[in-house]
Amino acid sequence: MVYLATQRIEKKWNTPLQNWGLVVQQLAIKFKGRLELDLATNTTKN
Fold first, then answer.
1. What is the DSSP string of 1-46?
2. CA separation, residue 43 to residues 28, 46 (Å)
3. How far apart are CA 26 and CA 12, in angstroms?
């Protein structure tokens, strides 16, 4: 639910989040197979 809420409000943010890369990496580990990371662009694939 946190991930989906983040995706929804991410469009309104205009400054990068502190430690966001670390958070996304931890979510990818916790929810293996549900979150695909694009390391070349530092974004998530939907």
1. -HHHHHHHHGGG--SPPTTHHHHHHHHHHHTTTT-EEETTTTEEE-
2. 12, 10
3. 23
pLDDT for 1-46, tens place per residue?
A: 888 888 888 778 777 778 888 888 888 888 888 877 666 565 566 5
Tell me how many degrees the CA angle 19-21-22 measures, rounded to the nearest 5.
70
Domain limits, the chain: 2-45
Per-residue confidence (pLDDT) for residue 45, from 0 to 100:
61
pTM of the model as a whole: 0.46
